[in-house]
Design goal:
By secondary structure, this protein is mainly beta. It is built from four helices and 57 strands. It is globular, with a radius of gyration of 29 Å. The N and C termini lie far apart (about 60 Å).
């Protein structure tokens, strides 16, 4: 404890005086030399560019060094001069999160003028972060979905999963998403809170591993999309994407016999977008704005239960941004994004009746302000604020009211029920909620300072800062009829699961953060990255007053990071690197809802299947208010990685890295006694495991001589018994269905193995080519080949879910999925910088509709619960409880669709786009 206090005190002192550069910008650094190769102290260095027309000036240090920070991505001109020595000019390119290294020689006489653009180095020899950057020009030359989530395809080793979020070495909810350096991750469940108009994205940055203290504690990956900015020239883009149904091949679905059949495409999709930017106060303040309108309409669709009603989805978006340089020592950036969306008759799967659909209205709002100040040549102060809201409301097509008189002969008018009387399970009735409102908001402030200094024979980039985040979820749920119904008790009873009438639950969560880090350059070949992050988390519930029921202090979440880079071949720009770090995975604030002492809960009502007579109606213990075990500790992940990266010739780069992550101190709510008696309490799960290993190699070629390419291959293994990716949507990270009852325990004998997001092999190839013989033509391709999804036979569990393993996890695996997309773009110059482009994309060129998921339910037999007293022989042996429960289940009704496909790769599609740049 004493050591923790000392570390915390030191961290606090440093964080108040040192800091980090802005997260949506890059930098330029280097040294100035005279003709004899001696460093030049006191030289004047000035940088200007389209993004910085008034420029910024500084003076070189005693060692001839200079460094410009907080530069928006783009191209700049650097001029260095000193009276009596000479002048030189160079052009430089700046990327997000990277330092362009530039050495300038002044006073050297040349016989002709040669223009050389200094780009960011192929290998960043100063950092152990596994870091990738993609500019708009690269993105536009590839057949990718032109929005934020579409760019996830670029991440090496991260597989496509056709889901709400990719998995980057942890669960799908453990990634961090930034826009212009500010967090747009959902505060409760860790998914991308809002999509982004693709026209806005100027550059996309990915951090795959060795994430520094500055960028937090995500145990997956961190992405950052930087938006375009206005300049002194008026620039704009108009874009239209067209994909009518006749542009798509037939898609797989199910018929009434449960057979896989193909039907003609039923989806029309049209999207229009525009952007415009220019000067507000020339040379000082610039504006940028964009808008989007999209409509997707599904008509004439059928599924296993017959015709599906038409379903229109409408999305709109507006975005505005101001950037400015009030003075040579200051930079400001402010933006606001609003994205409303409606979906009518949504949520009907392949085995659901049309009446189960719901209507949805949602919107997101994101407002940001950032400020950077350069009080001295070697000091940067940075502050940023974000206000984010995410609001959603869902309503059923039919409102049944609350708990109508129970009619055992008409379950379709009682709620939403699972019908297992046929050869496979289907869902009938109406959606189980008559009203659902889910609203999130987050206010976040971060401030930092950067100080660059020389000590003895070392150079330091000292950074530190603090942050405060206040997030909240407001949840209101009203059951429709009797909620969700199922046949249980071996077929003799009906279980109705519903929410009693309750007020909305308000669940705030707060995080405080302090960090300090230093990049220490020793000589010309060694750079050490050392950092320390400390967080404080609070989880609360608003009742009469705010009640904080769970907290972890700074001393509980101290996260050291240590890395080393070594140039194996001095002066050749390569590096061997290694890094170790600890990451406390508590960014998600869903615990504020799930572990609350007075949380929203639901009841299980039991009726006689023959007479409809009520038998019992009691709260489900696992959903009621939770107790917290004393001394509970936050979940954390330890990561270590090693790698080697090197430039090859002028434009090529080769990188290999190995990542090893293992998680500890998992938190779950557990029953007070077996099988599932309350009250449930939040506790540590010492038997829970999750481990990730990945070895990745990437070969890339920058755009030169009209072509560029990147190829990567990754072998990985994601395994354990604590798999939060068991659902199609997001789940509680500390109070999931895991450990709720027999068939859901981590101690169950078959549970340990490959997790649902395990994809051992992932190969990706991106390439673009502009053939000289056909000016203004661009060809692009994207090829991905990856392993299929692992799966195992399942049976009903204590809560009537399908989380009980009947064979070892990962016993089966779906076929590998290979997909190839193509792009062709032809640009027609009009006048000046204006041009019109026609773009055609073919998605899934091979047309293979690979099976992505299968029906894992082996038997349709109704659940049978042994008497609670029967579990007394198990004591506290969880595996015993599952074995006893499993022995009571029957297998008289095989599922005819067991092991057969339920979801497939999208069919071949053709997308036509028209774009005008001016």
């Amino acid at each position: 404890m004493q050591v923790k206090r000392v570390l915390l005190a030191a961290l606090t002192l440093v964080a108040l005086s040192t800091g980090a550069a802005a997260q949506d910008t890059g930098s330029v650094s280097g040294a100035v030399f005279d003709p004899q190769g001696n460093v030049v102290a006191g030289a004047i260095v000035r940088i200007t560019g389209e993004q910085l027309p008034t420029g910024r000036t500084l003076t070189t240090t005693d060692t001839g060094m200079f460094q410009f920070h907080a530069l928006l991505p783009g191209t700049y001109t650097v001029v260095a001069e000193k009276s009596g020595v000479g002048t030189t000019t160079r052009t430089v390119a700046v990327d997000v999160g990277k330092d362009t290294q530039l050495d300038l020689a002044i006073g050297v006489k040349v016989s002709e003028t040669v223009t050389v653009t200094a780009s960011t180095p192929v290998v960043d020899v100063k950092s152990t972060e596994v870091n990738f950057n993609y500019k708009a020009a690269q993105i536009e030359a590839l057949p990718l979905q032109k929005n934020y989530s579409g760019l996830f395809q670029l991440i090496p080793g991260v597989a496509e999963n056709n889901s709400f979020a990719p998995a980057g070495g942890a669960s799908r909810q453990d990634n961090k998403y930034l826009m212009d350096g500010v967090d747009i991750t959902n505060p409760g469940f860790g998914y991308l809170s809002t999509e982004v108009n693709g026209l806005d994205i100027a550059e996309f940055n990915v951090k795959r591993g060795a994430i520094t203290a500055e960028f937090g504690r995500a145990t997956g990956f961190v992405t950052n999309a930087v938006s375009r900015s206005g300049t002194n020239e008026l620039h704009g883009i108009l874009n239209m994407d067209l994909r009518p149904r006749r542009f798509s091949a037939g898609a797989n679905t199910l018929n009434s016999a449960g057979e896989i059949v193909q039907i003609p495409s039923t989806v029309d999709r049209y999207t229009g977008s525009a952007s415009l930017g220019g000067p507000l106060i020339r040379n000082h303040v610039f504006w940028y704005g964009s808008a989007l309108w999209g409509r997707t309409r599904t008509t004439g669709r059928t599924n296993a239960l017959g015709a599906v009603p038409d379903s229109p989805v409408t999305t709109k978006e507006v975005f505005g941004k101001l950037t400015g340089q009030p003075s040579a020592k200051m930079f400001v950036n402010a933006g606001f994004r609003y994205r409303p969306s409606t979906c009518e008759v949504c949520g009907i799967g392949n085995t659901q009746a049309a009446t189960v659909a719901q209507n949805n209205e949602s919107n997101t709002k994101v407002g940001t302000v950032t400020w950077s100040w350069f009080p001295t040549n070697r000091t940067v102060v940075d502050a940023r604020y974000i206000r984010m809201e995410e609001n959603s409301e869902n309503l059923p097509l039919t409102d049944l009211g609350f708990k109508p008189t129970f009619n055992v002969n008409d379950l379709g008018s009682m709620g939403q029920y699972t019908d297992t009387t046929g050869p496979f399970a289907v869902t009938r009735g109406v959606w189980n909620l008559r009203s659902e409102k889910v609203n999130y908001q987050r206010d976040e402030f971060r401030a930092s300072v950067s100080q660059f200094l020389d000590l003895a024979k070392t150079r330091h980039e000292l950074k530190g800062g603090f942050g405060f985040e206040d997030g909240s979820e407001t949840l209101e749920r009203k059951s429709n009829g009797w909620g969700t119904l199922a046949i249980v008790g071996g077929g003799s009873r009906i279980q109705a699961t519903y929410y009693p009438e309750q007020p909305a639950q308000v669940s705030p969560g707060r995080t405080y953060s302090l960090f300090v880090q230093d990049n220490i350059t020793i000589g010309s070949r060694v750079v050490i990255n050392a950092g320390l992050l400390a967080n404080k988390d609070e989880f609360s519930q608003v009742l009469q007053t705010k009640n904080t029921f769970l907290a972890f202090d700074f001393g509980d979440e101290i996260q050291p990071r240590l890395g080393i880079n070594y140039q194996v071949r001095q002066g050749q720009g390569d590096k061997a690197y290694a890094n170790w770090g600890r990451y406390y995975a508590m960014d998600q604030k869903s615990s504020a809802r799930s572990l609350a002492p007075a949380r929203l809960f639901f009841n299980d009502a039991i009726f006689d299947r023959t007479t409809g007579a009520p038998i019992s109606d009691l709260p489900r213990a696992s959903t009621t208010g939770k107790l917290i075990n004393p001394g509970i500790k936050p979940t954390y992940t330890d990561e270590w990685l090693v790698g080697y990266a090197t430039p090859i010739l002028a434009q090529w780069g080769l990188e290999f890295f190995y990542i090893n992550r293992e998680s500890f101190n998992f938190i779950e709510d557990i029953p007070s006694a077996l099988p599932a008696s309350g009250p449930f309490r939040a506790a540590q799960l010492p038997d829970a495991t999750r481990k990730y290993q990945a070895a990745t190699i990437e070969l890339s070629r920058r755009l030169a001589n009209n072509w560029a390419a990147t190829a990567s291959y990754s072998w990985s293994r994601l395994e354990g018994n604590f798999d939060l990716d068991y659902s199609g949507g997001a789940v509680f990270n500390t109070s999931s269905a895991i450990q709720d009852g027999p068939g859901e325990f981590v101690q169950d004998p078959f549970r340990n193995g490959p997790m649902g997001q395990d994809r051992p092999h992932v190969f990706k190839l991106f390439a673009s080519y502009a053939p000289p013989a056909v000016p203004n033509l661009t060809l692009g391709t994207y090829l991905r080949a990856q392993s299929g999804t692992p799966w195992a036979a399942r049976g009903v569990d204590w809560d009537n879910g399908l989380r009980r393993y009947l064979e070892q996890a990962g016993t089966n695996r779906n076929d590998a999925w290979t997909n190839m997309d193509l792009l062709t773009t032809y640009r027609v110059p009009v006048k000046g910088h204006a041009k019109i482009a026609i773009e055609a994309r073919v998605l899934n060129l091979f047309g293979q509709q690979t099976t992505l998921s299968v029906d894992q339910r082996k038997y349709l037999d109704a659940r049978i619960r042994p008497a609670t007293s029967a579990f007394a022989v198990c004591g506290t042996d969880y595996a015993c409880a599952t074995e006893l429960f499993s022995a009571a289940q029957t297998g008289n009704q095989p599922n005819s669709r067991f092991g057969k496909g339920t979801e497939w790769a999208p069919p071949r599609r053709f997308l036509l786009s028209f774009r005008a740049d001016f």
